[in-house]
Amino acid sequence: MPSSERILNREFCLIWLVNFFIFISFQILIPTIPLFVSKIFHNDAIVGIVVGVYTFSAVLLRPISGKLMERPEAKAITVLGLLVFGFLSICYNFSSSLLVFFLIRIGHGALWGISTTATSAVAADAIPAMRRVEGMGYFTLSQNIAMAIGPGLGIYLISRFTFGKLFFCSMTFSVMAALTMLRVKAPKKTDISEGGILNLLEKAALAPSLILFCATMIQGAIVPFLPLYAGEKGVISYLGLYFATFATVLVLTRPFVGRLANRKGIYIVSLAGLMATVMALMLLCRLNTLTGLLASAVCWGLGFGAIHPLMMAAAIQLAPHNKAKATATIWTFFDLGIGIGAILAGYVAKYWGYEAIYLTFTMFPLSAMVLLISKRELFRPTPITTISNIS
Predict the structure, then answer these.
(1) Distance (Å, whole) CA 328 – CA 333
(2) b/e for 295-315, b at 16 or more Cβ within 10 A?
(3) Model-level pTM?
(4) Where do the coiled-coil regions begin and end (predicted)?
């Protein structure tokens, strides 16, 4: 294979590591920050808001960060942002009030929006155009491995040590990301038009972004509230096994998702992923045994492991000359889904209990299936291949 068509080139491997460090820094806090807040305030609605305010601040910065990535100093902005991102992680341990805590969350989320948009833009440039679906699958594997390892690692750290050690660990991963980013080339410039926030979003990427939004709504409900729900059901001791199973499914299936989509089309593979997601939620609704918990982890790993990389790839390929805008757009919806999902799940838990969360949230993958079917011409093999050839 010519070196120009190789996915695992130097630039791709470096940005893969940067993305992994950013995500694991973030993921170890997802299940532990809610436990930290719940311990103090004893209010599930506040738990949802704590997760939501982080992601909403990232949402506000996503379109702007897409614009920043077109500036000559994009790399310096990203490195500085990662260092401050790590500094804010350790600041959680010294928050003296709820107001200070929320201000830290807002700043943390804003920098999360900048850094993850930057890594995705660099990855899109590093992947050969003809192999972008497969390449984005490998790239998002860095996110999904961190998503699978991070929550379990976070719970382990607070069970064996203290929240202070947890926040220090999060900061360390952010610093490692910044140091690795120093060796990465700045993202290439693309044409981003002037205008307001809405003009900085890529319209061509809206369909895959909305589908991913529905998937991350579920992510916003599962990860923050599953530790609380598992404790209520008496299976919290198996939570580490849940995330390990989720990680195993992601790692084993991810290399095949992109290749299967290249052969069968993004539409078919994504539809199967959404069906698996519905099954994962239904299994959580009746969580009474270890078998049910692990079966849900398998289904969720298959579902999110297919939807996430394929919608990322589709968004970029549907806007081949505006990759930075497409990246900012789909990450905006990614974060928006987690934020809205967490807040909605918090209020559902407060008034109807944890079990009701997962039953209620089946509406989101079902809605995504309706959208996917109605827009299936965008995800057929022929249009995606044609767009790949143009870019």
Answers:
(1) 9
(2) bbbbbbbbbbbbbbbbbbbbb
(3) 0.73
(4) none
- First vs last Cα of the chain: how many Å apart? 20
What is the rounded distance in angstroms from the CA atom of residue 11 to the CA atom of residue 380? 30
The SS3 call for residue 122 is helix
Spatial distance between the Cα atoms of 307 and 216, rounded to a whole number of angstroms: 10
Read off the pLDDT of residues 238-278 as tens digits, 9 standing for 90 and up. 777 888 888 788 778 877 887 788 788 888 899 999 999 99
Q: Spelled out in words, what is the top-level CATH class assigned to the domain 3-390?
A: mainly alpha
Nearest to 222 by CA among 330, 303, 162: 303
Question: CB 278: neighbour CB atoms within 10 A?
Answer: 20
Burial code (b: 16+ CB inside 10 Å, e: under 16) for 61-87 equals bbbbbbbbbbeeebbebbbebbbbbbb
DSSP string, 332-374: HHHHHHHHHHHHHHHHHHHHH-HHHHHHHTTHHHHHHHHHHHH
- Per residue in 90-142, pLDDT (tens digit) is 998 887 777 888 899 999 988 888 888 788 778 877 777 677 666 777 887 78
**Type of residue numbered 155:** I
Structure confidence at residue 177 (pLDDT): 94
d(CA 129, CA 74): 23
**pLDDT tens digit sequence for 365-383:** 999 999 999 988 877 654 4
pLDDT score at 389: 34
Domain boundaries, the chain: 3-390
